[in-house]
Amino acid sequence: MLREMKRWENVHLTGINKLPAHTDFYRYRDFEDAVSFNKENSDGYLLLDGPWKFLFLEAPEFSPPQFAAKEFDIDHLDTIEVPSCWQLKGYGKMHYTDVLYPFAINPPFVPQENPTGIYFKDVTLNELNEDEKLILKFNGVDSAFDLYVNGHHVGFSKVSRMPAEFDLTKYVINGHNRLTVRVYQFSDGTYLEDQDMWWLSGIFRSVEFFRINHHTVEDVFIETLPDEEYKNFTLKVAGRFFTDKVKEIKVKLFNQESQVDEFFIDVIDGRFHAFREMHQPLLWSAETPNLYKLTLAYSLPNAEEEMIPLQFGVRSIDIIDNEIRLNGQRIFFNGVNRHDFNPKMGRTVTYEDMLQDVLLMKKHNINAVRTSHYPANDLFYDLCDQYGLYVMDEADLECHGFENTGNYHWLSDNELWEKQYVDRAVRMVKRDRNHPSIIIWSLGNESGAGRNFTAMYNAIKEIDSTRLVHYEGDRMAAYSDVYSTMYTRLKVLKEIGKDNEGKKPHILCEYGHAMGNGPGGLTEYQEIMRKYPRLQGGFIWEWYDHGIEQVDEHGNVNYLYGGDYGDFPTNTNFCIDGLVFPDRTPSPGLIEYKKVIEPIVTEMMDQTYLKIKVTNRYDFRNLEGVILNIKVVSFDVLIEEKELLLGSIGAQEDLVMTLPISFQEALKHDEVYIHLSYLEPEDTSYASKGHLITKEAFLLEATKVNKVVKSNGNDDIAELNILEDDLQLIVENDECKIVFSKVYGKLLSFHVEGEEFVSNGPELTLWRAVIDNDMYKKDDWINRYFLKDAKEQVDSIHYQVNEGYIDVEITKYLSSINQAWGFQLIYHYRMTKEGVLNLQLKGTKVIRGKEVPEMVPRIGITMNVNNEYRDVTWFGRGDLESYPDSKRSQSIGLYRKKVEEMHTDYVYPQENGLRSDASFLALSKEDESFIINFKELKDFTIHDYETSALEEAKHRGEIKKSPFNVLTIDYRQSGLGSNSCGEEQLPKYRVRIEDFMIELEMRKIKKDDIVEESKFFRVR
């Protein structure tokens, strides 16, 4: 016996009584209201957002009898805010998966346990008349719903992230009306909506009501068609009315506030189209988002005047000579993947949320966004039009869970599902096609391959032949105008770039997985993509950390992820993978991406003559007028500052120029860096005058400090004494004291002037708290090579007393459980009677077998230091964290922070806070400091917690503080990579079992003397 399909399981249904899809527009009576584009002032508009009555059920079958009746008692029911996701309002269960469906795969059927929410809204309508059509619009409902009005079944809809409109004219009455909406968490549509995100349900986008004249415009769309030189364009305006009663439209065209054209269009049988020449119009691009306004005015049969305003951009998108070109010019995508997301409201986002996203993207040199993996809230596209972002608009389609069944193409190559696939594409295109920012339609994501994508492609091209179509799963680019891949390794990407003859242009629709501390290696991706013309950029995965906000009783904010709600199966913190934290604070990864994709590149050509080459990587913008701020700095001393305006440097051109600063004056100082900052010369739509576009810094090599030994021998200080027993070796005088364990062969304590600075260490470590991008290595590191448990064994301890100092040499062997590899270590300490401690640690690799890790997290030393010294000063990269494969954004300079500020507060705690390429660091308390001076540049971290505490914590605010600060100094640390979903650490950023040397000196100084004291050592 065949199972009977319920309405929400009926694969043959795309909806019941839904109105045809159309572009977004609004009708006005007044010109000033029209050109304000404020829909709330439009004619007949009513927003139904706000409190609705709500009944939550285990399944639709539990719906009360007569629940849809107008008289059904709702007074005792709960109230829920619309729009919202009901799981975040306390109904149902929170659940996060990346790939897996949360139920058995049996398409088109879904579980009988199908959480259902029934929404009720009473609406009063007055003065209804026969000229009106009354339309109810749902902008987003997950995943399917039935609509009832006054007890009548009006219609049914699915496709969660697309609008559904219904004509209520024959169902409503003057006065009180009852709207009832029954929403199903699961439907056959759920099989097509398996995107990597929280499973959230309900009416999550706005509900709108329109009272419109039944003769009015039904749809209108705009195209701009170029001539051969992309200078003059033809404007095409087309559309249809609900009836054939309107005969003429008056069109006015505006550039900003100035009218530039006026013409009339005849309406024949309710349809209209017109072509109008635009002579050398201002063109739209992400760099120059010029928008025109157009109004359509007409008289209705009742003699009322009505007006429709539209905004559009003049632009064309083509593939010419196998390149994606906008207005004839090759373009390059520096993009991101973006979900609709809010940490309090889930997929319910506000205009302010979207505006903040767009402004952040623009400020960080991002020029493109992919609406992964569904059409965004409609207002988002208005913002992309206005501020300038290239959009890849993606259909609400992903069947990722089928990959695990062994039949990835189950639905995509099944003709029974063709109508569902095509419906999702067509509705997207018909809603969004007036937006100039949209230059590519995407058929969906991670859904295998098959005939249904061919059908989608053909359906889109019938509606809109002016844009490109994308689908990454199309390995042969048969139904995609571009060749798209994701997480492609650099070696393969290079091969794609070389294989360009007669081939479609390539886009990386996802790369650089921004999970936790990362991504690393973005520079190498950018270099490859810029090198080969076939490669036209890509989109970082992704924009947000999808953490759900939790506030405790003390007001502390935390963010939850998969598994925190008891959800199973789950992909835990895999949803915490964005360039911005949940509160939309930029992560270090976003700061690095901004630098990597910088539109202005600077190279030093000749230091003696201070010649630089400035390369303009914009596709359209000339750099003329951009402010170049030049600062010549020695440590924290500003030697010289100049500001100038760049001359003409056209898009994709470069210019060699001489910096107007004094080389001779700079030579009088040490460690001189020239800092170049490129600033916006005027206010822009997204940033104020002076906004930093990008920056660069160069060391004047002639000023580099070669640290020398400068003795401070003092005859008035007593010589050092040696005290030892079977357990300890103590070196001391009235000035200082150092204690070694003879059992463990390590430094236990270092005192100067009666105060302990080091309380344990230094000891060699190969470990770092695992970052998300280590996820596929950590099991080997922990359970195969036992790197976390690597320990030192003492071979010998010797000391030698000299005049003014004592040498202590400790030889040790480091390895881990059951390993045949390790390091032979020589710790050479030299302690002067003045309290200066010098350390040279030499490590020699020992390999006795074949089982050797290809990569270890780090080779470094760690020690516990006095936590009263909490002011950190360093000369190196800063002020944010930086790692070997992610440090271009952090310039070398003198920086100061508190120890607690050296922590990067990732949602999922992990290794963080490294400061790279430091020549020294100092820890201070009031006016006293301890300087740690390096023989060669080193990386370091300092935290007020131990690594074990960091690993035990699973959320922000859970890291247990230690009674000391933990300082780690690296010979080298491995890079970050992107291997949570992407490229591993590149070979040059991997630390291996290798010989190494770490040399440093510690001494107590005055805080005011830090810089001068850093230029020399006290001990040979």
Automatic annotation (TrEMBL):
Enzyme class: hydrolase
GO-annotated molecular function: beta-galactosidase activity
Catalytic activity: Hydrolysis of terminal non-reducing beta-D-galactose residues in beta-D-galactosides
Keywords per UniProt: Glycosidase, Hydrolase
InterPro entries linked: B-gal_small/dom_5, Bact_Beta-galactosidase, Beta-gal/glucu_dom_sf, Gal_mutarotase_sf_dom, Galactose-bd-like_sf, GH, GH-type_carb-bd, Glyco_hydro_2
EC number: 3.2.1.23
Any Pfam family hit: LacZ_4
Protein family (similarity comment): Belongs to the glycosyl hydrolase 2 family.
This protein's name: Beta-galactosidase
